[in-house]
């Protein structure tokens, strides 16, 4: 499932309930393109009928084989516990010595635990490794957690963001 969100114009759109937002594995933020990227977009898309031929890169069988390969990537018990610690820190930060309780209305759900493991395996695969490291979790953690940490009014009043909260958790929870 893929969706886009345009934070500039929300006329006629409504925010999704937390239960629906939680079903998305990642919330990836995409910035404006560079000048070179925008020029390439212009060159490719400015014609009335742009040439946008699409060639398949992988077959369905290739994708299934890659999924099996990623599933086989080793996830040590220490890394699993680290994932659980991170997720629990979003729910009960004081238990981890973090003074964030008054800023977090709701922490990450068990889906975050599953997606951190899956995402970290994907990161390891992209790095050419057959095992997950804590850095794989940190690399993917923001995209998996940013939309799962719901802030209190106090946090919003202090201009805190979910990204800032997640960053503190990722920085402070002890790495195995």
At a glance:
With 176 residues, this protein is mostly helical. The protein contains 8 helices and 2 strands, in the order ααααβααβαα.
Folded structure, characterized:
The structure is a single chain. The chain has 176 residues and is mainly alpha-helical. It has a domain at 73-176: Magnesium chelatase subunit I, C-Terminal domain (Helicase, Ruva Protein, domain 3, Orthogonal Bundle). It has helices spanning 18-21, 35-45, 60-71, 77-91, 110-126, 134-145, 153-157, 162-172; strands spanning 104-106, 150-151. The protein has a two-stranded antiparallel sheet. The longest helix is centred in the C-terminal third of the chain and has 17 residues, at 110-126. The radius of gyration is 19 Å and the shape is globular. It starts with 17 loop residues before the first helix and ends with a helix. The mean pLDDT is 89.
Helix content: 40-55%
The first-level CATH class name of one domain: Mainly Alpha
Biggest sheet, strands in spatial order?
Answer: 1-2
Net shape? globular
CATH architecture of one domain: Orthogonal Bundle
- Sheet-strand content, in percent, reads under 5%
Order of helices and strands: HHHHEHHEHH
Give me the secondary-structure category: mainly alpha
User: How many beta-strand runs?
Assistant: 2
Largest sheet: 2 strands, antiparallel
CATH superfamily of one domain: Magnesium chelatase subunit I, C-Terminal domain
> Count of DSSP helices?
8
Oligomeric composition of the shown chains: single chain
Query: What name is given to the CATH topology of one domain?
Result: Helicase, Ruva Protein, domain 3
User: Which value, in Å, is the CA radius of gyration?
Assistant: 19 Å
Tell me the distance between the termini: 33 Å
Could you tell me the mean pLDDT? 89
Low-confidence stretches: none
């Amino acid at each position: 499932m893929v969706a886009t969100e345009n934070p500039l114009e929300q006329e006629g759109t409504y925010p999704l309930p937390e239960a629906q937002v939680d079903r998305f594995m990642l919330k990836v933020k995409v910035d404006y393109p560079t000048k070179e990227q925008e020029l390439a977009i212009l060159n490719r898309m400015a014609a009335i009928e742009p040439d946008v031929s699409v060639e398949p890169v992988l077959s369905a069988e290739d994708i299934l084989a890659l999924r099996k390969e990623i599933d086989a990537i080793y996830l040590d018990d220490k890394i699993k516990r680290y994932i659980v610690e991170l997720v629990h820190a979003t729910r009960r930060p004081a238990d981890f010595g973090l003074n964030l309780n008054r800023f977090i209305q709701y922490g990450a759900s068990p889906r975050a635990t599953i997606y951190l493991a899956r995402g970290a395996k994907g990161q390891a695969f992209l790095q050419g490794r057959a095992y997950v490291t804590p850095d794989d979790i940190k690399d993917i953690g923001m995209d998996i957690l940013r939309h799962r940490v719901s802030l209190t009014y106090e946090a919003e009043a202090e201009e805190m963001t979910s990204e800032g909260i997640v960053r503190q958790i990722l920085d402070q929870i002890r790495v195995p």
